Amino acid sequence: MASVEVSGRELHYVRRGEGPPLLLIQGMSGTHLAWGRPFCTELEASFDCIAYDNRGIGLSGPAEEPFTIADLASDAFGLLDALGIEQAHVLGISMGGMVAQELALADHERLLTLTLGATYCGGADGRLMEPEDLQRLAAAASSGDRERAFRVSWEINLSPRFRGEESRYAEFREMADALPSPLPVIVRQVEAIAGHDTSARLASIPTPTLVIHGTEDRVLNGSNGRAIAALMSARLELLEGVGHMFWWERPERSAALVRDHALSLRV
Length: 267
Prior knowledge:
single chain; Rossmann fold; 267 residues; alpha/beta
């Protein structure tokens, strides 16, 4: 793993694969490990994949002050600048999808294509996590009991059908335990998400956009995907019976959607 300095802060990233650049932006508390090797391996056959840790997360430098989603978008542009990448395909999931929206709004010419997964745009039709699920996650995260935190996250992020195979939990737990996310940074991410609202601006984005959402998403209800797709006149792919971490549950199908969207529009 390598690092660059962006606005005085170290950002760590992993770069693998060959082809046009594809920037992968993770969600709340997610590190580069949260993409999972099955999904990344599929993408690396077609793209120069750049996955990084957001400020304060994983191996990146600390984030001790409040920040906005637009600030995180500036970090992403700074990473591309440091790597000498003028244009890239962009995939953002969950909070990372909010960051990707701000990227496209700030400078759409730098985005070849845009894929928004399991994300949210605010506005009257936006739906964040149900209060009871948010309370369960917060209580587990602040309990000091790591196993409890992993189990609650597993339950809320993955569909019942996927969780039905208990052996799958070990890989999820290993990923989550490898680079634990600091609770104060997660709180700042939650605050940034609460202030995110691009709903009135999305229609101005000309970038070819694909929206992916699982129908069993408990973190950000699938209605968010439908609302974003309608506002942007974007293609919408709903994955039936799949939870929030659709790329973890359906890595081959998810990678194929990203690949086909990006490469079919390649110039």
